Amino acid sequence: MLRFRDNLMRALVSLGAIALAICVGCDRCASPSQLAPEPAPTAEDFERPDSPMALIPAGPFTKGCLPDDPYFCDSPRETVTLPAYRIDLYEVSAENYSRCVAARACPHGNRPTIEDGEHLPVQSVTWPEAKAYCDWMGRRLPTSNEWEKAARGSDARQFPWGDAWEPTRSNWCDGVECDGSVDGYAEAAPVDAFPGGVSPFGVYNMAGNVAEWTATPHPAKDGFYIVRGGAFAPPTGMGEPAAQTTWRESSDPPNVGPGHLGFRCAADKP
Q1: What would the pLDDT profile of 62-80 be if each residue is shown by its tens digit?
Q2: Are 244 and 63 in contact (CB under 8 A)?
Q3: Taking the CB of residue 262, how many other CB atoms lie within 10 A of it?
Q4: Are 75 and 67 contacting, i.e. CB atoms less than 8 angstroms apart?
Q5: DSSP E strands: which ranges in the chain?
């Protein structure tokens, strides 16, 4: 056994000497990664998350708010007919977005890591980042009209669950409620929280948690896009109107992602 070990050591030393001689005879030595480069991962190398969607049937719905409603919305009310489409049941989570980043299909950007809460909605997302994720999923951002119908149903309800304001049905705050004393969350909640506040189509968190990008350009701001839905940090002093299904936030520039802003995806009916 000792003789075998000695012979093995002498062989390894000899191989090392040969390698050193070869290296010295070259202009430079190649690292192992240079000798055998690893191909860069592609989007196809990463499994896309299983992200359930709700089917929104074709038909009319009432869009917008009354002329005297004191907040941002489409006014006056009108009836809009949409074809059938699908929309994500949940806001895109930090965990799911991180898969797109790992696949090099989405930029990481400036946002919290998934260690801060993988089941929380991804936040601080710019419009191009949201679009990149939906493209990677084979989906798209919803239009403003699609978002509103998915939130309020076909009966023009004020909130996803009905017409009466109930602060425990969504992650929404204003003033003292922002400390989590009413809804249980000081900031963002998991994307599947508040099952009692789903829309008529079963879609979660459309009255709070994070506001959401849409694909619809802002009518009064060139290059901007409409943002829909309430958030855990609504505009100061707006009160409960910021949680209504007709709320339309004055958009930020598409390359800016405020901390309360996320998104979900939509798709045409197959």
Answers
A1: 998 776 665 667 667 889 9
A2: no
A3: 29
A4: yes
A5: 53-56, 59-63, 78-82, 85-88, 211-217, 225-228, 248-249, 261-262, 266-268
Of residues 187 and 22, which shows the higher confidence score? Answer: 187
**Residues in a beta bridge with 13:** none
Instruction: Indicate the SS3 state at residue 225.
Output: strand
- Describe the chain by its helix, strand, coil percentages, rounded to 5: 30, 15, 55
pLDDT, tens only, 100-137 = 999 999 988 665 555 556 789 999 899 999 999 999 99
Burial 20-54 (b: 16+ CB within 10 A, else e): eeeeeeeeeeeeeeeeeeeeeeeeeebeeeebebb
Closest to 150 measured CA to CA, from 264, 261, 226, 249 = 264
Q: Domain 43-268, what architecture?
A: Alpha-Beta Complex (3.90)
